[in-house]
Amino acid sequence: MATILHTAAEAVIDAPAPTVLAVLRDFDGRHREILPPAFSNLIVEEGGVGAGTVMSFDLTLGGRTQRATSRVEEPSDGVIEEHIVGRDMVTTFTVRPDGDRATARIETRWQPAGGLAGILERLAAPRMLRQIYRDELARLDQIAQGGPFTRCAATRPGAPARSLPARPAARAGRRRSRRSRGRSWPTR
Length: 188
Fold this sequence. Notes:
The chain has 188 residues and is of the alpha+beta class. It has one domain: 2-Layer Sandwich (Alpha-D-Glucose-1,6-Bisphosphate, Chain A, domain 4). The chain has helices at 17-25, 30-34, 115-144, 178-181; strands at 5-13, 39-46, 54-61, 64-76, 79-84, 89-98, 101-110.
């Protein structure tokens, strides 16, 4: 029997459920603003809002970046699914009304890779994805309230938009030999 991995994060969002859903469904607009730095190079290939959207993006986990393409479905009210093309992996966004607020949940189920890569995936990926989803939910809370996302928790609705700081450029990754550095350990 194949192992299925699972990870999830949930949060109360201080905005009505229809507003939260509108942000999540707008893949070519507001949804971009809630994506943590682990997601990059998002390209909407078809659609852009809700079911039928096809997009590709890069996801970086544990220093390793992979390109993925996903197809969006909306199987029921308050549920948005992203199916990764060519892989048994589904991320589900669920939004439930909670008075004048909403409860949002991001959940992913997938079949891990085989071999050593699969062992590492089983050990690390669920925890790393959960942390990314917590970040995404915090961003969703800010955006759904009408304010820009900033790294400061004291963002005021209506405050001027600030861009997130640029990510540091990737390092060259070249290590010098011990002999050339005169040290007995690798350097960055």
